[in-house]
Amino acid sequence: MGCEGRSAEPLAGAVGFARVLRAAGVPVGTDAADRYVRALGAVELADRRQVYWAGRAALCRGPEDIPVYDLAFQSWFGDAPPPVAARGGRVREARIAGLSPASRGSADRRDDADGDALHVAAGDAEILRHRDIAELTAAERAHLDRMLAGLRVAPPTRPALRRRPSRTGPVDPRRTLRRTLAAGGEPVRPDHHRRARRPRRVVLLIDVSGSMGPYADTLLRFAHAVAHGRTARGGRTDTEVFSLGTRLTRLTRAMRSRDPETALAAAGRAVPDWAGGTRLGETLGVFLDRHGRRGLARGATVVVFSDGWERGDASLLGDQVALLHRLAHAIIWVNPHAGAAGYRPVQSGMAAALPHVDRLLAGHSLATLQRLLVEVRDA
After folding, report:
1. Tens of pLDDT along 314-335?
2. Whole-number Å distance between alpha carbons of 154 and 237
3. Among 103, 110, 92, 1, which Cα is nearest to 46's?
4. CA dist 125 to 129, 234, 294, 324, Å?
5. What is the Cα–Cα distance from 86 to 197, expressed in whole angstroms?
6. Domain 200-378 falls in which CATH fold?
7. CA-CA distance, 322 to 194, in Å (whole number)?
8. Where are the beta strands (DSSP E) in the chain?
9. What is the rounded CA–CA span in Å between residue 87 and residue 177?
10. In whole angstroms, what is the distance from residue 205 CA to residue 244 CA?
11. What does the pLDDT look like over 38-49, one tens digit per residue?
């Protein structure tokens, strides 16, 4: 790693922190870890501010990595990230929540750079990824919220009509002929082209009824992260967000704010039936009449977050899901209870909808939500 001549203790600490950061979700490669070790050699290790900025410059690839980096820094070094000076000299305090009492920093923890500390720090983040959201403490939820804000979202794509030049693929006869004529009829290397790819719309339907109460806030944060995902070319994803309960509420406008807290506050004001009853069949019918048939659901990947507890007519729900399936590219049903051992989809609503669903997934933890992102991308 280009660190000959350095003492083993700083090197062990740097490698350990890089592993913690990788476990938290930031893809830290060998080259980045090498830059970090070399950067530490140029700063004063007793100054946490210098250590913080050396790591942030060497290990973060973009703004989306910073929240996760701040949490990992606090977890590993036991110090909150230094405040960032905003324009005009005003200091903005970083909003950081502790992972758990066991992972909060202390003077002893800062001096502990051995393998046990590495195991605890990396283990906390990994354990939290698999914890049921409904069982988290307030501090753990705050930590999870920051991890959700740092999710990397790769939207699904679909073939476009337009073709673009490519190094491989079918021969582009027009371009090849034009180049041949420009060369006076001399043979030229054939040009190739491929169909361009366009983002596929993602529609998120979130059940906010009382039975989904422990998960609704996290699912809205997840929806906010998906709505602010970026395509490979830097464009915004095409995402629509609705809440389901006894009424249908469109939350796409509320999700446009870049700040998750502002977006969730706006969503909370917009939803009139938060923690109320469940009439999925009727609300899905409203969605199809107002939006689905008019284009929002056509060719889209639709994700329904619900436990399937239906107080209305279950057969109506089955009919509406069947109609939605004919319009959409794919339907993924996310049930937080599906991850429990021995779970069976015997609820009336779940049983009626399941025959028309492409995938049934659990959505009770960060790990299952990350798996959902992969399923949506590959649907």
Report:
1. 899 999 999 999 999 999 999 9
2. 9
3. 110
4. 6, 29, 43, 38
5. 39
6. Rossmann fold (3.40.50)
7. 34
8. 84-85, 91-92, 157-171, 192-199, 202-207, 239-244, 249-250, 301-305, 330-334, 359-361
9. 56
10. 7
11. 888 888 877 888
